[in-house]
Amino acid sequence: MQATEKQANAIFNKNLGSFFIRLLLVVSAWFVLYNLLLKPGRVIDRPLTNAITAASVKFINLLPGNESLTWVEDQQNENRNFLVKEGKNVMGIMDACNGIDLMFIYVGVIILLPVSAKRKLYFSAGGIVAIILADILRVASLYYIYVYYRSAFHFSHHYFFTILMYAMIFYGWLLFIKKKAV
Amino acid sequence: MGKAIKVFSIYIVLLLLLSLLLSKLDINSDFHNIAGSIYQVRLIVIPTIIGGIICLWQIIPPKPLKLFLIIYVGLWLFRYLFLFIATQVEQVHLFGKTYQLSLIVANYYKTASRLETPLPFIIFWVIYYFYNTIDQQNNKPTGTA
Fold first, then answer.
1. Size of the A and B interface in Cβ pairs below 8 Å
2. How far is C-alpha B73 from the geometric centre of its chain's CA atoms?
3. What angle do CA A76, A80, A82 make, to 5 degrees?
4. What is the CB neighbour count within 10 angstroms for residue A93?
């Protein structure tokens, strides 16, 4: 009995410790790769930010009263787009808002867990799509908050939607590990 | 798993309410002088950390909680150590390019390592639950004589 307990504790510590070391290494490697190779040329950021901006504008225009909303890339600050209404820049969408770092953290945890490749692929792809859709809804909601209830913008931008995104990621991981721990 | 979902849901709802309250009172951040450098600290970080530790205390045994606290405190200490070193070094010249080390380290902690968010608590519980379930399944009797 004592030996079994000892073994269980040893397995637990080894697995958990090794997981966090690997997670730290993967996240750090991603950070270096992203900042040195991908970020300067906006290899991923530009298409992703543009896609999220364009989809958000389409979504907002589906709702009554906003048919004229368009968007442009900021010519001065290259990593930003603007939502434009009646020729005026209303709200900026930065590359930092496209959720790429959250996608990586979400996928990073999934790929490091010892589960079948098929399940990892399924949940990674599903999670990325869910994060992008949530980001589109977030941008559209922030636009309305910015236009109609600006005093709540700071709270909504920095806290409310950020915490909701974390809650969504948590739910994604829960589904991933539920009934499929081996 | 049910208890953990409940505990984390309450934690997230309370964080949302508290951040709304702090926002209404307009006391979002505070500035601290640490080792000669001024750091902006968002006040919501304090309830995030305390709440996260309470959550883990509710749903995992003392031993893994102790392990988490050692790792978590260690990572915070490393964070301020790296920030301090980066602020002192300022610039690094590598392969003909100049890198602002203080900006790079600050950016790393903002994007890659999110210590001040609920994520470390959530990730730790997910991983603990995952490996604990494996462990239980491995130690389960097979039913054969």
1. 97
2. 9
3. 95
4. 24
Residues ≥6 apart with Cβ < 8 Å to A111 = A26, A120, A124
Contact A170 B111 (CB under 8 A): no
Beta bridge partners of B94: B97
Which residues face A71 on adjacent strands? A83
**Rounded CA gap, A163 and A105, in Å?**
15
Encoded tokens for B85: 């070193």
Q: Residue A10, exposed/middle/buried by CB under 10 A (0-12, 13-18, 19+)?
A: exposed
Candidates A132, A149, A130; CA nearest to A51 is A132
Is the ipTM above a cut-off of 0.85? no
Q: How many CB atoms lie within 10 A of CB A47?
A: 11
Model confidence pLDDT, tens digit, residues A137-146: 999 999 999 9
* Other C-beta atoms lying within 10 Å of the C-beta of residue A13: 14
pLDDT digits 0-9 by tens, A2-26: 444 554 454 456 777 788 889 888 9
Dig out the tokens for B105 from the structure. Answer: 């380290």
Condensed to tens digits (0 to 9), the pLDDT of residues B28-79 reads: 666 666 556 666 667 888 899 999 999 999 999 888 898 889 889 988 888 8
Q: How far is B141 from chain A (nearest CA, A)?
A: 13
Residue B140: predicted pLDDT: 60
